[in-house]
Fold this sequence. Notes:
By secondary structure, the protein is mostly helical.
Amino acid sequence: xxxxxxxxxxxxxxxxxxxxxxxxxxxxxxxxxxxxxxxxxxxxxxxxxxxxxxxxxxxxxxxxxxxxxxxxxxxxxxxxxxxxxxxxxxxxxxxxxxxxxxxxxxxxxxxxxxxxxxxxxxxxxxxxxxxxxxxxxxxxxxxxxxxxxxxxxxxxxxxxxxxxxxxxxxxxxxxxxxxxxxxxxxxxxxxxxxxxxxxxxxxxxxxxxxxxxxxxxxxxxxxxxxx
Length: 227
């Protein structure tokens, strides 16, 4: 049975071997059990990153929302084929771009293009945090669009903590992040000035998220109206 996975060095040998073989391209690709598109993708990865680009990555590659939006807009604007856009934005496969386009077309919301939180829990124990830290973690996920796992690793908290704070903030606002068990004042004891400052901060965050989405949606509509 042909191998479906190769080391970086083996991929390079296959790339270089095409110029030396007497076989046709189709026969050459078949002899290694790979498709022509796979060979072309390896060529691109080698051109961009050398041998390191051909090595399998054991880590998850995350693309931020801005890059996703730019790639989707470029494709909808017919600035190139899937492979052209893939090469332009340094994506590892055209499947990613197809998925992003489908998610936007089907969902029509900015959430469809945000990074999907990984369900793999980070091996970090829960720790005590300040109220300000919890807000920063929530904004790290909701505004900067990092995953729960990335937030857990960045702030040295557990996956469960990061997830619970984001859900609490979305459901009941930043005041829900107050620790009622500790010395921090519960929300009902906050002064009016403190409460207004907190609400203002949360409102600015929501406005920023909405502005980014509105701008993206406007560009997509302009493209669709041209068709």
